[in-house]
Amino acid sequence: MSITTAAHDPSGPSGHLPSFAREARLRLAEWQLALPLSLAFAALFLAPLLLLVATSFFNDDKITQPGFASWAKFFGDPFNYKVIFDTLLLGLKTVCATVVVGYPLALVYMDLSPRLQKVLLFIIVMPMLLSVVVRTFAWIVVLGREGVVNQTLLWLGLISEPLRLLQTELGLVISLTQIEMPLMLLPLISVMSRLDPNLRDASAALGASRWRTLFTVIVPLSMPGLVAGCLLVFASSTTAFISQTVIGGVRLIYLPLLIWQQSLVVYNWPLAAVASLSLVVSVLTVIAALSYLGRRSSRHLHG
Amino acid sequence: MGRRQSFLDLSYSLVIGGIAILAVLIIVSPVVIALMISFTEGRSLKFPPTGFSFGWYEQLFDPTKSRQIHRAAGNSLEVAALSTLIGVVLATLAALGLARNRARAARVADNFFMSPLVLPGITFGLAALVYFSTLGFRPSLNLMIAGHLIVTMPFILRTTTASLSQLDPALLDSSQSLGASWFYTLRRVTLPLIFPGIAAGAFLAFMASIDNVPVSLFLSNARTDTLPIRMWGMMESTLDVRVAAVSGVLIAAAFVLMLIMEWTVGLTRRMRD
């Protein structure tokens, strides 16, 4: 008698089931917990995206005649190719700038005491929680005609006329470098703080300079973080609508502005749908290529 | 050889250290400068600022002059609070269901739920606009809550899943072998242990909603616009320096909130790992 009760769970209605059946029932119940979110995503995420794809296959802005005319119109215009190219180029330039400026900071982070690491991490994360609009506004103040950069350069006598920095690609890339920097630094620091410090000591003990250690030991080992950072910065900067319109102005046209104009100014939804699907496809293509290169380089390292 | 080596190491320290200092300057200085500008009395964004004044803040807090800004701020808070609340419930349930499931379908579902983070926001914003207007909905705060839910929920799912996978399964086993029901274990063991993860995710989701532009841009109209959309309008037309005062308030709020989250749930550690 005592043996049979011991084999059963003493509590709850499930206590009378054999344990494997209870296990299976629990699995099923756990699965079902994801149902509400699945339903929400089906209705509010998947369905809108499918409808967007469907909308792109209509010829007119009243969405009555199905056809391929919107695609033909969008890709028949050389101007749109330039916009796509400029958008991807802006992303690549921002990625390069965040790597050049951010990577050394991640290196320095590794050498800091835990206390200073905490402070630096706080400084890095803080702007991320600050509205993009606020960060964009800050750059207007910095780069404007009477802004900090121009005033300093004038005061130093390096220039005699204020430089035009707003509404130029240079100004936009500088701003995006700061705005997207946390996205580069967080994955980098995450990977680097897991690196074995003995590797650097071993490299130094074997007579390698710190530069050599950097390029032959640290950079290859931090590749996963670097690639992840590049992907995030690229995806974010190519679609940074606010910064692109406010700092880039109306003369620099990137895909997000084009999508906004077509959908909310011209009200040509099929064309806006084509433009936004082109944005998705071109950004995801570059991201896939980058992560393929990243995987290949880390395989090369471990193979 | 030795001298060459030390020269190389010195150049390493100078170059890497120099760029790192530049990086910190680039990250911090715009925020500090924007804060300084918000306390000036001038009408333009001149640097160095001339004269100290709370003028822009007085204008910002004036209930009649800045009524639209106040309404936009109220909309932002309402949308962020409700979408985060719904997101916490849905994401925690889903994380409980999926985090320990090794099945392929569970991984696919997890990736699907995270995909709004990769998809360009403006594409989802346009898709939501087309979808809701096809269904015959007019722009409203409810639509915005639905849209924000999709793009901010992944933050909660990520941190909650992470804290669930760090949970020691032995704790759950011992709770159950001591006779606790599944629900009792959830309430008394699992939830208290993963609460910091949920809270960190909820905080990130809330901030992402407050900051969201691409979804609000398409789902709001003049009456339901959010703070970032209104600020964008103020910067695009005539550069209204009240933007500086709004920025000042947001900077202070983000700073205080981050300190609180750092002390309570160790936010930065969770973002790093």
Explain what this protein looks like in three dimensions:
The complex is a heterodimer of chains A (303) and B (273). By secondary structure, chain A is an all-alpha fold. Chain A folds into 2 domains: 1-36; 69-129 and 169-302, MetI-like fold (Orthogonal Bundle), CATH 1.10.3720.10. Chain A has 15 helices and no strands. The longest helix of chain A has 34 residues, at 78-111. The radius of gyration of chain A is 27 Å and the shape is globular. The N and C termini of chain A lie far apart (61 Å). Mean pLDDT of chain A is 86; it is low at 1-16. By secondary structure, chain B is mainly alpha-helical. At the A-B interface, helix 2, helix 3, helix 5, helix 6 and helix 7 of A face helix 1, helix 3, helix 4, helix 5 and helix 6 of B.
State the order of secondary-structure elements of chain A, H for helix, E for strand.
Answer: HHHHHHHHHHHHHHH
| Chain oligomer state | heterodimer
CATH topology name of chain B? MetI-like fold
Shape of chain A: globular
> What class, by secondary structure content of chain B?
mainly alpha
Task: Tally the beta strands of chain B.
Answer: 0
Summed up:
The complex is a heterodimer of chains A (303) and B (273). By secondary structure, chain A is mainly alpha-helical.
Looking at this protein, list some descriptive labels:
heterodimer; A: 303 residues; mainly alpha; MetI-like fold; 2 domains; 15 helices; 76% helix; disordered N terminus; B: 273 residues; 77% helix; 0% strand; globular
Topology, element by element:
The complex is a heterodimer of chains A (303) and B (273).
Chain A: H1 2-7, H2 19-32, H3 35-56, H4 69-76, H5 78-111, H6 114-125, H7 132-143, H8 148-156, H9 169-192, H10 197-205, H11 210-221, H12 223-238, H13 241-246, H14 255-265, H15 269-302
Helix pairs in contact in A: 3-15, 4-15, 5-9, 5-12, 7-9, 9-12, 10-11, 12-15, 14-15
Chain B: H1 2-37, H2 55-61, H3 67-98, H4 104-114, H5 121-134, H6 141-165, H7 169-177, H8 182-211, H9 214-219, H10 227-236, H11 242-265, H12 267-272
Helix pairs in contact in B: 1-11, 2-11, 3-6, 3-8, 3-10, 6-8, 7-8
